[in-house]
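Request:
You are asked to prepare a plain-text protein record giving the amino acid sequence and the backbone structure tokens, at your earliest convenience.
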Amino acid sequence: MSFVDTLRLWDEAVTCVDKQDFSTALKIFLSIQEPNSKIGFDIGCLHLLNQDLDAAETAFDGSIRKDEHLAIAFFQRGTTFYRKERYEESLADFQMAFKNLRGNQLIDYKALGLRYILYACEILHNMALAEAQLGYWEKAQENLVKALDYKTDAKLNVIDKALQSTLKQKLFKLVEFPSNVLFKPKKGYIAELEKKDYLGKAKVIASVVPQDEFSGFAPLQPQVEDGPTCPKEPEVLRALEGIPHTVMFEFVPETSDELAVVPGNIVFVLQKDADNWASVVFNERRGLVPYNYLERLDISLASKTNKGITASLSQEPPIRPERVQGLTPGGNSRENAERKEEQSNDNSCVVKVRFTFTFAVSVPRGSPYGILIETISRKLNLPSTAVTLSFTSEAGGQSVIDADTEMDSVWSRGSGGCITLWCNTKEQTVEKPQNKIHFVALHSYDSSNPEDLSFQRGDKITLLSRVNQDWLEGKCNGNTGIFPASFVEEVPVNGQ
């Protein structure tokens, strides 16, 4: 099998794991001929997840034969032997894992494609447990005392509890690797698999204003000194269209469809409506900005615009114009006029639905349950009998919305012409519930974009979905939004 075919199957398999489809992922992995050490490790982890210990042992054997210095493979095979009650072999593998750390406190496998940190104190912890199973209580105590020299603050409590147990000659819990965390192929290699258009397309690489510091074409910058650089935001495909305007006053958005801009930004006006709001493109985003905050830009006179911007900084911004309810960015005047007329006639309500993805539908306020469920099921291309609605993410009890629900109580929850509901399918409700994935923030993330999720270092975040390899969607402190994956670290299941 060629290297390209191996990469393609490897990427396809880990994508299935991200979707919790472990059986399909294992079938794809097993179809790879002559797997490398990382793929062999991934296969072993999936066998462990299925409690197939013999197959897991064989897979980890192959991984270690390909790379005899892969400490995490020794750690996982030691865990496999421990579950099979082969404690002497388990102890030997944990000792080999510790030896391959070469005296370091930890190994961070992120650079190799595995989002996991193997700590020396955890290996010593498991060594002590294997020795305790063999009756070597004094050696177990010695290893746990040694583990204190390698401890980190997050692992101190586990080591202390284990040491207390050995003093009473009682067994303690094994530290296990989360088997659904796998080695992934390098992003650069995967990108090379895609077909390339070497001629390319026209792309804006500079601002229309010389030496413009605020145009928004520059990449995002780190928000903390020691923090990672924010990845490029998920791209919104757009053509360079609209009429260029200069922002003269700072504008702070109050709704999610408005854009934050500051003096000096260059925006492209797609449409100006009668209520003095403009639909614009800025920094690959579309949204609404008051038109009286803008001034048309003559590109031929671009070098003279800075004077006008400087002068406007000392002036008070104009009064914020009134919004027409339901006006959306990017629509044409006729569409917006029709939408206004429809809203004045039927008083429609925007229903924001959280499914495996988030979407919105417009339903007349006060509609019966049948119209609501039919509109949403039509959007999902599913029969209405297969869809369950609820007020919360956990569909159960009084949160479920059905034909017996008093719809007045549903519509009364809306505010500002908008209501948020959760949607599940019957296949989802029958499935065994999966453990929620949680992250802990390694760095603070503060963004003015309304769709982003801001948080502080140390905050706990619940994963809702994976936008792509660089961006995630999550919930923290009652707020929902997207955030950079490099700013957080996944909390192991046994760490919850």
